[in-house]
Amino acid sequence: MNISQHITQPEGRRLEFKETLPERSDLAKTVIAFANDAGGVLFVGIKDNPRIVVGIDEINLFKFEEQISNIIFDRCYPAIIPEISSFAIQDKQIICVTVYRGSMPPYYLKEKGKIQGTYIRVGSTNRLADENIITELERHKRNISFDGELLTDIRALDLDIETFRTTYTEKTGELLDIQSLQKLELVNRLQDTLYPTNGLVLFSDSEFRNKYFHYAKIECARFKGTQSGEFIDQKSITGNISEQSEDAYNFILRHINKGASVEGVYTVSRWEYPVIAIRETIRNAVVHRDYSLTGKDIKVAVYDDMIEITSPGLLPPSIDYSAMESRQSEVRNKVIAPVFKRMGIIDQWGNGLKLISEELKKYPEIGFNWKEVGLSFQVQFIKLNFQRQELGQELGQELGQELERELKEKTLFSFILQKLENGNLSRKEIAMSFGQNKISGYMNRMLPRLISFQLIENTIPDNLNHPAQKFKLTERGKDFLQLIENLK
Predict the structure, then answer these.
(1) For residue 420, with 0-12 CB atoms within 10 Å meaning exposed, 13-18 middle and 19 or more buried, which class applies?
(2) In the prediction, which pLDDT does 467 show?
(3) Contact 367/384 with Cβ under 8 angstroms?
(4) How many CA atoms does the CB half-sphere of 405 hold within 13 Å?
(5) Would you state the pLDDT for residue 334?
C-alpha cells in the first residue's frame, strides 16, 4: 500500500496517525505494539479525526526524526529497528515510521519491564498485555504453539480418546496407535513417561479436557429479531474439537431456510445463506482459535438478518481477509491443524479464504463483514436486503392510506418523488417539469406533506427562504417508491 492509500484508511491494527510528535511513552508503546503483532505504520503530521494533513515545520523535520529514533532506541527492548522517512503530501512534510513484525517478542518498555511494559495492538489502541499473551509471544519466538506444549500433570494413557480414535480411523483409514500419536506430535516422551500435548487433551473426551479447557466449546444461539435480547433456541457444544464444527454447522442449518428455484428445466434447492462458506468459517474458527486465551469460547449467533461467528484470538498477522482471493496461510495451532487436514475437515493450506470468496460470489444478496472485536475475530454473513424489507414494511404501515391510493392510481404525491429521483429541484422547477407556468395551490400543499413524511427534504434547511433552495429525495422517499413498485 502506498502513502496516498495509507492516509485514506482508518486507524487500525497496523496504522496510526499523530498530529504532532507524541509523548515519549505513547510513541514507544505504539512501536512496541506494532513489533509484537503484525507490524505497522505511524504517520506524524496527520490529524486523525477529522483526517487533515497538518504537516511538520521543515526546520524541525530532521530534529523530529532524530528524536523518534532516540526514543525507540532508549525505551524499547529488545532492539527495534524501524524505517524512518519523510514525505511531502499536499505540499506539507510528514514523517513516516514503519515498524516490522519482530522476531524476538515480547517487546516491552525498558523502564517497566516485561510484565508491566509489554503492549499489543487491539484495533486502533495499544493495550497492556497480560501474562497469557506474554507467554504466547514467547512461544512465537521459540516457534512453538500452545497446542504443542506438553501437559505434564497427566499421563497420555489416562486420557479417554476412544471417540477421537474411532473418528480418526474412519476419516483416514489409519490406526491411531502410540506411534501415530507421536508422529502427529499429540504425545511426547519425557523421562520415560508419555505425556499428552494440549492438542491431544482438546481432542479427548476426558474429564481432564473439562478441567483444563472447559472454555473450549461453541455457544450457539438463535435470537429473536436482530438483537441478542431474547433466545429462540440455544445449544452449548462441548464435545471434543474434532466434532464441534459439524455440530455448530447443523445448528445453523436448523435455523435457516432452504428454498427452490427453477434453472432451465430443473428445480434447484438453495439455502438462503452460502452454507459452504459458513461451514468453512466455523471450521476455521475451531482450527485457528487461540486456545491459550482462558475463559473465551467460540460464539455462533443466528439473527433474523445475519449469521455471526466469533472466535477467540486476533487474526494471524499475515492473514488479510480483504484479499480473500489470494491463497493465504498462517497456522496458529501447529499440532491441531495438521490433524484436521489429515481427517479432511480442512482443505489444503490457503484454500479456505478462497473457497469462502468463491461461494460468496453465488450470493450477491449476502454481505460479508469481518472485524476484530477486542481479542476476538468476528465474521458476519448479512442479508443485504433485510433492512430495506423491514423499512418497507414500516413505511407500508405508516403511509398505509397514501400507499393504497398510489396503488390504485398514481397521484402528484408519487409523481413529485419520481421527478426528484433525477436530481434536486426548486418549487418552480418542479412545476415546470409538470408543464405548469406557475406553482399551484395543490402543489404548495403537497410539498409540506412530503416533507412531514420525511420523503423529501430541503437542501438548505437552515434558511427555507434562500433563493437557491431546492428539494431532494430522501432514502426513505426512495424506499417508498420501491415499495410501490414491488406491490404493483
Answers:
(1) buried
(2) 87
(3) yes
(4) 9
(5) 93
68, 21 in Cβ contact below 8 A? yes
Q: How many residues would you count in the chain?
A: 488
Q: pLDDT tens across 433-482, in order?
A: 888 877 788 888 888 888 988 889 999 988 888 889 999 999 888 888 87
Q: How far apart are the C-alpha atoms of 352 and 325, rounded to whole Å?
A: 10
DSSP codes of every residue in 172-231:
HS----HHHHHHTTSEEEETTEEEEBHHHHHH--SHHHHHH-TT-SEEEEEESTTSTTSE
How many other CB atoms sit within 10 Å of the CB of residue 231?
Answer: 10
| Secondary structure (3-state) at 373 | strand
- CA 218, 220, 221: angle at the middle one, nearest 5? 160
| pLDDT at 391 exceeding the cut of 60 | no
Q: Could you tell me where the DSSP H helices lie in 289-425?
A: 336-342, 351-360, 386-398, 400-408, 412-420
Report yes or no: 222 and 255 within 8 Å, Cβ to Cβ: yes
Under 8 Å between Cβ of 141 and 105 = yes
Least confident of 252-266, 343-357, 384-398: 384-398
Q: How far apart are CA 276 and CA 256, in angstroms?
A: 14
User: Could you tell me the CA-to-CA distances from 201 to 156, 208, 219, 311 in Å, in that order?
Assistant: 9, 7, 20, 20
pLDDT tens readout for residues 177-213: 999 999 999 999 998 899 999 999 999 998 999 999 9
pLDDT band (50, 70, 90) for residue 320: low
Which pLDDT tens digit goes with each residue over 408-436?
Answer: 777 888 888 888 988 999 988 988 888 88
* Per-residue confidence band for 68, with pLDDT thresholds at 50, 70 and 90: very high
The x, y and z cell numbers of residue 28, run together, are: 514507544
Strand order through the sheet with 376-383: 231-237, 218-223, 298-302, 306-312, 376-383, 366-373
- For residue 93, give the amino acid letter: Q
Q: What's the CA gap between 108 and 33, in Å, rounded? A: 8
Give the Cβ contact number of residue 15 at 10 Å: 19
What the block records as the C-alpha cell of 76 is 524499547
Nearest Cα to 209, choosing from 78, 427, 246, 217?
A: 217
Mean pLDDT throughout 101-123? 94
Exposure class string for 98-107: b at 16+ Cβ within 10 A, else e = ebebbeebbb
Top-confidence residue, 224 or 482: 224
DSSP 3-state assignment of 59?
Answer: helix
